[in-house]
Design a protein that fits this description.
By secondary structure, this protein is an alpha+beta fold. Helix content is 15%, strand content 44%.
Amino acid sequence: MGLGHLKAGSLVHHRVGEADEPAIYRIKDDLEFSVEILEWSGKSWEPYVADDVQVQFYMMSPYVLKTLSTDNKEGLFHTSFKVPDVYGVFQFKVEYEKLGYTTLSLSKQIPVRPYRHNEYERFIPTAYPYYGACFTTMAGFFVFSFVYLYHK
């Protein structure tokens, strides 16, 4: 085996602050992604050093494209991002092509779900004009009813 061979190790993703990989993400979750990339040095697998490895969070087209940062010691490339406000079946994709190196093509599929009915905010601030209109209509109805019933 000659020089320029790349090998991908563990591809790991999880929510920020957690260690286990979930079976499903929710929209707007904060997540961390990491992948280990090693290079054959002629005698052993050594950590690969590069600053142009990218991950795509992909559903039909990339919704998130992030450059992975590395610690340069263990060959571990990592990043964190927020899941987009779109639900469906996404893939983490790492497609790395560099002249003189083997091509890496990794993907892992993960579903993204919307909020459940009880996970939304109780009162949405942008809906305050509608709340005001509703309460104004109720107040107007009560005033009209009072005037109509008790006016002589």
